[in-house]
Structure formats: structure tokens, C-alpha cells
Amino acid sequence: MSVAVLVVAKAPVPGLAKTRLAATLGDAAAADIAAAALLDTLDSVANAPVAARIVAMTGDLAAASRSDEIRSRLADFTVVEQRGDDFADRLANAHADASVAAGGLPVLQIGMDTPQVSAELLDECGTALLSADAVLGMARDGGWWVLGITDPRSAECLRAVPMSTSETGAVTLAALRDTGLTVGLVSELADVDTVDDVEAVRRACPPDSRFSRVTLAVEVGRAG
Fold it and tell me: pLDDT, tens digit, for every residue of 40-87?
């Protein structure tokens, strides 16, 4: 399929990764959960029938949980550094950089907070993108989990969108449509931000996934 998948990721460094999870579970457990989510996501992207696979990374991977495993998995991806002053800028720039790396292909972008994403779902989203200017998948907390665009210039509107709020999804959709784009809506998913999100996401993951195993082990440890 003539689509590139872009994963926007942050190195899961204890004390810096998943701080809202860490407030309940501790820095090390939160970073391990983040690493598991990232690795499961990368596996799904690697298995998806797409033309290019790109990761826009930030943070000190050498200090991250599961650093060696993540480095090994990234060998199958084109890795670019995130650039920009804030998250909105980094997203817009990542779309531009991914488009260049993929030779101008449409770019389907996801994060590392939805480890339940499967290769089949990415295939569905990519197929939808080929018949629209953009696709957007809302997250249950009011944000969004996937954004696909056919022209990287369309991502410029993200710079004015407040990120990580309960209105981010709606504002992003409006911003895309205000530029004249046709936007297809794809499946809504739950993402992992707090400990209250873990069970719903785990139910949507395969039982042998890293995310399932790690979060169950953390719960057992807490109970013990």
C-alpha cells in the first residue's frame, strides 16, 4: 500500500515517561509500561502492508527502559529526530520530515499510547487515507490517536491546536476542515495516560502482548 506510517515516540526514560502513570505506579513501572507500549506499536507497524515505516524520536534512548530491545526494533525503521519548540510544532515537523523520508507518500501518523493498534487496523486507516485528503481517529479522552494526510503542508494547521486537552480531537478536526480538506473519520480508541486507562487498553490487546504482560505484572506486584 502506497502509504508511510509515522510513529511519534518519546524514549521511555524513568522519571520522564508517562508521568501521570508514574504518580501512581512509580517511575520505573511507568517507563516499563511505556516501553512495552512502544514496542507493541512498532511490531504492528512492522507487520502492516505499508510502503515505508518511520519513527520520529525524542529523548535519551540510552537511558530508557528496554533500551537494547527498542534499538533492535528500530533497525527496521527510518528514524528521524523530532524538532520544534512544543509538541504541536514537533508533530507538524515530523509529518514534513516523514514525507521527505518516504519520497512524498501519504503519511499515517500514530503515537505510542495505543498498543492495541494492529497491522489490520493500520491497513484499514491507510486504505481510507487513499480516498481522502486526511483521516483522523479520535481518542476516548477527547484527543486523537491517528492522523493521516496526503500532503505534509496540511499538518501546518496543527501548530495552532492546543495539545493534550479534552478538546484536542475536535479542534484538530475543525482545523483540518477549515483548510478545505476532506477528512475521513476512522475507529475511536482508548489511549493510555493514567492508571485508570490501563484495563480498557489491555482488554483490546492480545493477551501475550508486552503491554498485557507488563501491566498484569505491575498489578500483581502492587497487590502483593
Answer: 999 999 999 999 999 999 999 999 999 999 999 999 999 999 999 999
Read off the amino acid at residue 116: Q
Radius of gyration of the chain (CA): 16
Does this model's pTM top 0.85? My answer is yes
Contacting residues for 174 by C-beta, under 8 A, at least 6 apart: none
Q: What is the tally of helices (H) and strands (E) in the chain?
A: 8, 7
Q: What is the DSSP secondary-structure string of 101-134?
A: HTTT--EEEE-SS-TT--HHHHHHHHHHHTTSSE
Of 219, 174, 170, which Cα lies nearest the Cα of 195?
219
**DSSP letters spanning 183-214:** EEEEEEE---SSGGGHHHHHHHS-TTSHHHHH
pLDDT of residue 222: 74
For residues 162 and 171, the answer to whether their CB atoms sit within 8 Å is yes
Determine the distance from the C-alpha atom of residue 130 to the mean position of all C-alpha atoms in its chain, rounded to a whole number: 20
Helix (H) or strand (E) holding 58: strand 52-58
Report residue 1 as a C-alpha cell: 500500500
